[in-house]
Amino acid sequence: MTATGSYSRRMEELLVSHGYPALFLLSFLAATLLPLGSEWLLVVLLLKGFDPTLSVSLAALGNTLGAMTTYAIGLWGGSFLIGRVLRIDEKARNRAERVYVRYGRWSLLLSWLPVVGDPLCLVGGVLRVGLVPFVALVGVGKLARYLAVALLVLQGGA
Predict the structure, then answer these.
(1) Average per-residue pLDDT for the chain
(2) Rounded to whole angstroms, how far apart are CA atoms 63 and 143?
(3) pLDDT 10s digits, 100-148
């Protein structure tokens, strides 16, 4: 076994041995701008007999709270991001806000997608989507994803 394979195996054993807290933390971190995934740990825990309802709930909660962190970065760092990093002028920003208000809010249901999900949450903060609609849309999307993963695992194991 390679050093990388050995490290990966030890990391997996560590996360599995911490069960629910590890799932919550990994799900949280995976919803920030860090390039992580948490579905694999949900699958492993379910295959090891962990409670499906609690596992899905903790993963969805952790992932939604992580998305709220990304939202907060956009909310409070928005001016800096728009003006200094992205260099978007006032006219382009106003146009983007009108489009996002009209269609973009519903795109938050897709915040569970790899690559585009985290930026959607960031834009939600930058464009000041209300917290309640943000949490509702993101939470539904993330819960649906973890629920689908769990159902596939449980039906595949039956």
Answers:
(1) 84
(2) 9
(3) 677 778 889 988 888 778 888 888 898 889 999 999 999 999 999 999 9
Q: Provide the token pair at 107.
A: 């795109």
Q: Are 90 and 118 in contact (CB under 8 A)?
A: no
Euclidean distance between CA atoms 154 and 158, whole angstroms: 6
What's the pLDDT tens digit per position in 119-129? 888 888 988 89
Alpha helices (H) along the chain: 3-17, 19-30, 39-47, 52-80, 90-99, 105-107, 117-126, 131-157
> Cα angle at 73 between 24 and 149, to 5 degrees?
30
Domain ranges of the chain: 3-157
